[in-house]
Specification:
214 residues, alpha+beta, ten-stranded mixed beta sheet, globular
């Protein structure tokens, strides 16, 4: 998209690609959302979350509206990049990267979900490694954070294996009920010890031109 090059930013690994979440790609990914393939038990998402909507069409509409609201909000105190996860040329999930007061703190947070069809195959870890490469190598981040409910073994295991350190606990709600969250912290030094040489960044100059990084 020549007039908004942030949507042309991509991250590629040997097994998947993160592509900027254009409306065309979101329209394709919406079929995964409509089919309910975002769900898991125990429930992994904190409130508010459109995926808990039972009506398929309304679920998709709420999900899209949330992305549209946040995708264009690029301010010094908060910005978020949305990516569609592509495996074998088809959309299978979503990966985001958020910066809060990034120019001052250099910190980012990640969020993701993956279709049930591809879970427990290493794709979730590959997605996280790809977005961390963008954060640290591409944007110069100092630290990345993540959190997950304590009964979400997949997300917590990925954080542990990628070198995140436990960073305390927090409380969130899911479907209106309280849930305890593990908080995780990954420093740049810890990431450097595990950094990969087979992840490629594409059109990264758009981030430096349009995001408030410094």
């Amino acid at each position: 998209m020549k007039n908004y090059p942030l949507l042309d930013v991509r991250v590629s690994t040997p097994t998947l690609e993160l592509r900027g979440a254009t409306d065309e790609l979101l329209d394709q990914l919406a079929e995964v959302v409509r089919a309910g393939k975002t769900h898991a038990e125990p429930a992994p998402y904190d409130d508010p979350m459109s995926f808990y909507e039972t009506d398929p069409d309304l679920r998709v509409a709420k999900w899209l509206r949330a992305i549209w609201r946040r995708r264009g909000a690029v301010e010094p105190d908060a910005w978020r990049l949305y990516f569609v996860v592509m495996v074998d040329g088809r959309p299978v999930g979503e990966q985001t990267l958020s910066g809060m007061h990034f120019a001052t703190l250099g910190t980012v947070a990640t969020f993701s979900w993956l279709s049930v069809d591809l879970r427990a195959r290493g794709v979730g870890r590959e997605m996280r490694e790809a977005i961390l490469h963008l954060a640290f190598d591409g944007l110069g981040a100092r630290e990345a954070s993540s959190d997950a409910f304590v009964d979400n073994p997949g997300s917590n295991a990925i954080s542990r294996r990628l070198g995140y350190e436990p960073n305390g606990y927090d409380w969130g709600t899911r479907r209106g009920e309280p849930g305890l969250l593990n908080r995780w912290r990954l420093t740049r030094d810890a990431w450097e010890t595990r950094r990969r040489d087979d992840i490629r960044l594409h059109n990264i100059e758009a981030c430096h031109a349009l995001l408030p990084l410094s």
